[in-house]
Amino acid sequence: MYFSDYLKSCREHVNLTQDELVSELYNQDIEHFEGLDANTISKWERAITHPKASKKVAVIKFFQTRTGLPLPCLPQTNVKGIESLICQSGVKNLTGNSKELILAFPSESMDIEDFKVFPVRDSERIDTILSLNMDVHKSTNLDYTQVSQEQFKAWSLHPSNFFMLCEYKDSLAGLFFTLRLKPEVFEKLMHFKMKISEISPDDFASFDEIGSNYLLSFYALNQKIASLLFIRYYAHLIANQTNIDQVGVLSSHSEVAKIVQNMNLKELEQSKIQEGETIHAYQASLANILASEAFVNMILTKQNCLES
Question: What is the mean pLDDT of each run of 10 residues along the chain (308 residues)?
Fold first, then answer.
């Protein structure tokens, strides 16, 4: 999807003329929109000219304020439809150059048609997959954030949680696990008043109530697989934007920190668990995650999105 389409769709959605939008944008953010006029808005909507990423972010924030939604006005509302709007090439900038979470398995000969992303609960090899996940989880987390394989399995079967795996020719190629928690439980985790291992089934938020998203595990054999998993995750966030409040993670791992900071999560606080071991809490509202230059590069940038 291009910014030009999004801008016009949102302007019409909130019933503003181009002149009225200029005035509204200027009043909300003089720094970014000083000197803006209706002719410029017209050129943006027709993709004749393109604003800088920082201005696109400011436009997203304006429509967030106007509608109360993190990302209104999309032509698609289901996960599959939203996935089609996201550019894989833009996601690569988000995941960066992680060497432990994203390996360097050769991807040139991998055909996109041979990949399959689906819920772990639908796999016949769920125990094997979760056993492999435990190896990754143990190597990238301190004891404070460790959980048992039995907990992972119970959580993966809960319908509220996002436990996705990627297979390549029927072999495990990557995984992305998150929990959908009640806001008060999420806040306890973020402020070190509760351990992840203490989460019970009663702590999960259903889809008919507001929940917060906790990032639990991520791993991919290469960048192509990482991009596919992140595309599915962002599509999930956008499709459920009316009932997702915050996103966060606890981690001591430097590569995790880089990825979540690229997602626009900010360090909330930190705790010294034991001598020489500090764990950091990163958190952001869904609105702030979607109002970021990294996200703009994924979904609202005019670029060639054809994937190899």
Answer: 90 96 96 95 95 94 96 86 81 73 79 90 94 87 90 96 94 95 98 96 95 95 91 94 97 90 94 86 97 86 49
The answer on 192 and 54 residing in a single domain is: no
Which strand ranges, in their side-by-side order, compose the sheet holding 244-251?
115-119, 162-168, 171-181, 211-220, 244-251, 277-285, 266-274
d(CA 100, CA 191): 27
Q: What is the pTM of this model?
A: 0.92
The distance of Cα 259 from the centroid of its chain, to the nearest Å, equals: 10
Residue in this structure with the two tokens 């017209």, named with its chain if needed: 42
Residue 118 and residue 35 share a domain: no
DSSP state of 213: E
Looking at the fold, whether 270 and 232 belong to one and the same domain comes out as: yes
First to last CA, the chain: 19
Task: Indicate the number of domains in the chain.
Answer: 2
Residue 308 within a domain: no
SS3 85: coil
Residues composing the chain:
308
Task: Tell me how far apart the alpha carbons of residues 3 and 31 are, in angstroms, rounded to a whole number.
Answer: 20
Range of the domain at 101: 79-299
Of 29, 5, 54, the closest CA to residue 293 belongs to 54
Strands, E, within the chain: which ranges? 115-119, 162-168, 171-181, 211-220, 244-251, 266-274, 277-285
